[in-house]
Structure formats: structure tokens, C-alpha cells
Amino acid sequence: MASTCTYQFDTEVYKGAVTFPTQLFINGEFVDPVNKGTIDLINPATCKAIARVSVGDREDIELAAQAARVAFKEHWGLKVSGDARSKLLHKLADLVDANADQIAALEALNVGKTFYSAKSMDLPTVVSILRYYAGWADKIQGKSIQTTPDRVGFTRHEPIGVVGAIVPWNFPLATLFMKLAPALACGNTIVAKPSEFTPLSALFLSTLIREAGFPPGVVNIVPGYGDTAGQAVGESMIIDKVAFTGSTLTGRKIMEAAARSNLKKISLELGGKSPSIIFDDADVDQAVKWAINGIFMNQGEICVAGSRIYVQAGIYDDFLQKFTESAQCLSVGDPFSPGTFQGPQISERQFERVMDYIKFGQAEGATLRLGGKRHGAEGYFIQPTVFTDCTPNMKIVQEEIFGPVAAIMKFSAEEEVIEQANNTTYGLACSVFTKDIDRAMRVASSIEAGTAWVNFSNWPELGLPVGGFKQSGIGRDLSEYALENYTNVKAVHINIGIKI
């Protein structure tokens, strides 16, 4: 197959040709898969083909892992200073920034998110992540510990080795860099497996990695299916650590594969069913805006989506009316149209999954207040959907839908809503809306979740960690905490006077 593909954009917000590789990126070269596998990528807004690209299998993952192992031993890892790693990460950030429009266009085309959100949120986030961890690259430090007068010890934080990064289709570039940047800053090499649905931005990135000057084998990119290439990452005896973002079901498989192989380290950022809690004293208009953003942002395809909305009885009717009116006004359609807020779901399978949950909600007795149907005649678009009269054990309240579906419930007392909010197997995030700072701190502390936003939602900060409690994951992305995922701590003991 051809080694590159050029896509011609002619839209209101972006015009131009973008050329991207269609092959795997292994050991600094673009290569065909061993078994010559390919996949036709589909534009979720039109259901039409975008391009045909390569997909790797187990053999390709092993080749990439071998290249990464050689690179780690010979020209990366402890062989390269933190300052040198920092300069390369800054150079890559410069290149991503310079190509932001092209990358945003590929993300909108391939993922279905709006060009505006890709350009104004995803790409600046990626650049910031690279620069943040470039700053950490020469500050990976241990401690000096004086234990007794005749001995001294210190710790070294050393790179783990080869990291397998498995990333999802909803934020393919941002989640890749949330793993790639800290792993590289710490001196690890990478085998990245993008989703088979959305590999375009990662493939484009591979050209920038080579242009930035990363040595061959330091970063390898192998798109592939989860049950073949993804499973191979988990089972590889060469890969030392897996960083995964995706469903809890797949996270379990990663854990099992890691345990059955070389007991590799894992970090997992998994599913969520995040509650948004709005108290009587909240600014209703602001709470509505943030709650709308919390569930309908990125088509609802976001792990921290505030899909369970609890509203205190005193403002319930007012909130519900304003929320419904706002949801009804959301513009659903072409991701390249300037006014679009919500694009299509990623695939036909995900579209059908969301529609099935809407049917479950109706069958179990919830009231469909808004939406619930396909939007338009083509593409995988779903109307913003709002359910009321929901009970705690309904599927739409308990299970992650990953689509534009909100369940709004009334509560009376603080203790009651805390119990309801914690009635889930997940624990990824929550939002609390109140003007009472004592209550805000009390409730945020009581919710079993890795992130708590007060008076806003879905707004990560580089300096603060992201990760889950319960079945929402293990380990943390972003911030200094992420560095712990990618280093081994070695204790060095020095005898300065002990005789035997």
C-alpha cells in the first residue's frame, strides 16, 4: 500500500491538504505490518471512508518492543541526560504547535469532535503537557538519607525501560501525550498503540517525532486492534510497564495479561459515572452551563462526563427547565461548522450502544424529557438526551454510557446525595456546586472520586493529578504524580565505617 495519504480539506474553518503516513512507525522508519493488515477509517460525520492505513499484530508489537529495548540500552535511558531529553521534548512541542491546524483537522475528521475544540483545547493541552514534562526531565531526583554515623544512603529514580502505551479513541492525541511525555522525560522508550478507529493524529505525530530528532526506537507507533495488538502489549515479555486509558473491562484484561507475563507495572485510567451535585444555594445559571459542558462536551465521549446530575429540591424545577432549554439549543452537526458544539459518536457500534441505553432508560421507567433519537439522515449523530424520574439501580444511572445522555435526579439532604453519588462501582470524578465553602469542602471530601471540581467541571489542570478510585483505575496521569508511573526507586547503601 502507499506509504502516505493526502486528504484535501475544504471547510469553513480549515482549508488545505494534510499528508499523513499510513504505515507503522517502528525504529524510526515507516514500515508495512508483518501480516500486511489494513483498516479503512470512516468519517463518523458522513459514514464515508477517509483512508486505508496499516494495523499491526502481535509480531509488529514485538518488533517495536525489541527496537525500544535496544534504544533504551544504547542511546536513551541513562545514556542521555535530562537536559537533552528536555530539549527534544521542547522541540516536539514547537513542532506540534507549528502544525496545530493540520493536527486539529485530522482529529475532527477522524474522531468527530469539533475542529474548534480540537484546536482551542486539545492541541494547546498537548503542547502544554510536553513543555511541562520537558521541565521535569532534568529534575528526576532521589533523596540522600543519613541513617547512622557510619553509613549513608541515597535513592535513585531510574527509568523503568520499555513502556507500552494503549490509548483510546475519544482524545487520541491528548491521552497519548499524557503518557508519552512523562515516560520520555523519565528516560523510558515507548511502544504506543493508538485505537484502530483514530490513528491519524498519532501517525502524523510520528513524522514530527522523527523531525524533532528523537533517536530511532525511542518512540514506536503501532495502530492495531485491542484483542491482537493491545493484548500483545500486555503480554509482551520485553515491555516493562503498560499505561492504559480505556474501559474498565479492558483494564481488567490488561491487568491479567501483565500478571500472566512478566508481572509488568501498570497504570490504568478507566471508566466513570461521575456525579454533578447542585445545591439550593448554587448559582443556577452557572451550574446549568457547567453541567451542560460536563455531560455533552465531546459528544459525551469523555470518561469524567457528569452523567448523573443531582439537584436539590429547592431549585430542581428551575434548574431542569433551564438545563433542558440549553440542551435543546445545542448545535449538533458538522464538526467543521463554526457553530457546532456536538459532533457524531465515533462509530456505528458506539452509536448503537448509546441508543440501546436510551431504550433501557425508557424500558426501566425513566422519563425521556428531551432527545433520544438520531440527529440527521447521515453520520452517527445523537440528539442531546435528558432523562428524569430516574432511580438508583437503573442502567442509565449505574453504567457508563459514553454518549450525550444525562440522568437528572432530585435530592433533599446532603447526606442523602452523598450516599447516592457514592452508589457506583466507579470513582473517577465529581462536581459540587454551592456557595457554602464549608459544604463544598465537606462534600468534595466525602465523594469517593479521584477528582473533585467545585463550581465547575471537566477542567483538568496540568499541575494536579487525574485518576480514579475504586474501579476507575490505578495510578495517576498529569502533574508530578505521573512521574511515579515511569520510574523505579533504587536504594543505594554506602559503608563509611562499618568493619567486620
What would your notes on this structure say?
With 500 residues, the protein is an alpha/beta fold. Helices cover 37% and strands 23% of the residues. It has helices at 58-75, 82-98, 100-111, 115-136, 172-185, 200-212, 226-235, 248-260, 284-296, 313-329, 348-363, 395-398, 414-421, 437-446, and strands at 4-10, 15-21, 24-26, 29-31, 38-43, 48-54, 144-148, 151-159, 162-166, 189-193, 219-221, 241-245, 265-269, 275-278, 308-312, 367-370, 385-388, 405-411, 429-433, 451-454, 473-474, 487-495. A seven-stranded mixed sheet has the order 16-17-18-15-14-19-20, with helices on both faces. The termini are far apart. 52% of the residues are buried.
Task: Please tag this protein with its features.
500 residues; alpha/beta; seven-stranded mixed β-sheet; six-stranded mixed β-sheet; 22 strands; globular
Number of helices: 14
What strand line-up does the widest sheet have? 16-17-18-15-14-19-20
Runs with pLDDT <50, length 5+? none
Q: Helicity level, as a percent range?
A: 25-40%
Q: Give the rounded overall mean pLDDT.
A: 97
Tally of DSSP β-strands: 22
Straight-line N-to-C gap: 69 Å
Secondary-structure-based class equals alpha/beta
Q: Which word captures the global form?
A: globular
Quick one: biggest sheet? 7 strands, mixed
Strand content: 15-25%
Radius of gyration: 23 Å
Structure, briefly:
With 500 residues, the chain is an alpha/beta fold.
